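Quick check before the chapter quiz. The format below is the same one you will see on the exam, so make sure you can read both the input and the output lines.
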Amino acid sequence: MLNRRTLLKLSGAAPLWAAAQDRHGPAGDTAALRPAIWDVHCHIANPATATPEDRMAGLVRHMDRLGISRAVLSLGNPILADPTPQQLRDTNDQVMRALARWPERAFGYVYVNPNHVEFSLQEMDRCVRDGPMTGIKLWIARHCNDPALDPLIERAAQLRVPVLQHTWMKAGGNEPGESTPYDILELAVRHPNATLIAAHIGGDWERGIRIVRPAKNIVMDTAGFDPTAGVVEMAVRELGAERIVYGSDAGGRSFASQLGKVMGAEIPETARRLILAGNLRRIMTPILKAKGDRA
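Here is the expected output.
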């Protein structure tokens, strides 16, 4: 179990640990101490004037400081709530450019829009079946319990890839089309063979965690709101460590602030390692094997 002093030591020592792994290999004592970290929720939208490759280079610099080995990318610039088919293609092309430059540091989730189902299915085939991407990203074009999403979720299940769905419960009311944990629960019940990742632990995490608890095919990510004591502890208690994955929502949020939720949580070290990388590795194993990636 990590206290604050240990957390600071671990964060500051990340580059040294990376060097030690290079020197001593995976069996070295130093490597064994350092947990693997995969971030399930990152974006390369900013700065808007930079190329996708340069945006990813900026993320990698910060990832190196904190020992984050892999990041899952979606959404290039601009980030659009209801993109047209051409805009979908443009943003997915930006992500694939970043993947081509940094294949050992990034995965990609294809952005789809249920207001353009047929085109979105084509994008899933282009970017996942025939391309480098390993999952699906849905945002706020429609509530995710809408039957319009069914063909997209069915295709994701066929491809054996996860679906990262934005979820939130806002005190002042959600945006039009913005999904809540209730919506993703309904979707999960309709598609028991799909793996759904409820982003942001539903925003209102104390309610969100309990709402999705009945659906075993829903995993929750930790991304995108202020670090709060007790979030990860409650999620482990109510869902089990196997249903939680680390995410940051970078660059909208910092890696460090979001990583602090997990690193500072009072949970068993075995649970922490599952959340930081083990669960996402397991979820993505089928598609990574299909693509020959042994990460």
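If your answer matched, good. Strands lie at 38-43, 70-74, 106-111, 135-138, 163-166, 196-199, 218-221, 244-245.
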